[in-house]
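Deliverable D4.2, example record:
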Amino acid sequence: MPESPFLKSDRLHNLSYAIRGPIFDKAQQLESLGQKIINLNIGNPAPFGFDVPDEIMHDMILNLRNAQGYSHHLGIFSARKAVMHYSQQQGIHGVTIDDIFIGNGVSELILMSMQAVINEGDEVLIPSPDYPLWTTAVSLSGGKPVHYVCDESSDWNPDIADIKSKITAKTKGIVLINPNNPTGAVYEKTILQSIVKLAQEHKLIIFSDEIYDKILYDDHKHYPTASLSDDVLVFTYGGLSKNYRAAGFRGGWLILSGPVYRAKSIVEGLNLLASMRLCANVPTQYAIQTALGGHQSIEDLVSEEGRLRKQRDLIYYLMTDIPGITCVKPKGALYLFPKIDLKKFDIKDDEDFAYRLLEEKHVLIVPGSGFNYPNKDHFRIVFLPQTDELSHAAKLMRGFFDHCRVNNPKVLQS
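Output generated by the structure prediction step:
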């Protein structure tokens, strides 16, 4: 009689992280066979030549001797003090050093927050499309993700009426991702004020993911959610991964603001969870003060002549120049989220497109449905590669779409 297999936890059923999901696994298989893959799937700056600023690296190295032991479970004093000063610069009032938690990247802090806040069956409103970690973290913590509409025809801004219609007695909070991954939207101030007002009326927490707050193009302005009200409990997330190109350092922070005195129980929970993981990566914590206080080199990269700006402009032009492909031009972050007019192509849906593009052209992208977007006709491109590689990838994609076009004689004969 065969032995019973060891099974994964039931709570992991139906959870996914498409950025490193089955299509990524297929790409790994192809690479193991010697195929060169053009990776447009993940916002990881370092492999594309975006280095951590020298002064950050220098200060980390100087402090390595001081980073051999565990730190305070909330983070070292200088790092939390720097984040506190940063919150003041952003117009967030009343933040003390005890309202700041340093974590191993924003990802860890998101999961800690959900575990500290959510009871079984609580609902959390999450944008669609979203960064899928949010949906997974809510589910893993026993909550129910409820997705609200972000309107493509309105530059991917959240649909306030849809958010309002989905608030129930079980709703615990609203997630904002601004600037947005995957759409590149930067939310208008009036939109944010409307969401803050809803949170205030319904006594909800706002979880504001602002990891891309400095990656802005064309003079678009980012408004920190927590700066718009002192009466709403806001969890604000930031870190080193994107603005400072230090994704592998795993350095992030969580800022609590608003009526924190009403959240003593949640703070106790966060303290417990922070203590259980002992502390965040200590060498990285010594980089935070330098990063926030020094020259903000990201501004050079997103300026009119900056590398990121040029790459965004190029890939946007090349993709929207393909008949049947449309896209809202990103105002921030590192991503393009194009739409495929499926009526014009012999393509079943976004996953079919992603698999076939990988197999036939060796270009790796992420299907839009991997971001909890219900219409299976979008995909995400990371525009971190240099312009020559982006041009090559776009040429391969154009060739794929031209071959799949329904009026292509080869398609009609097949």
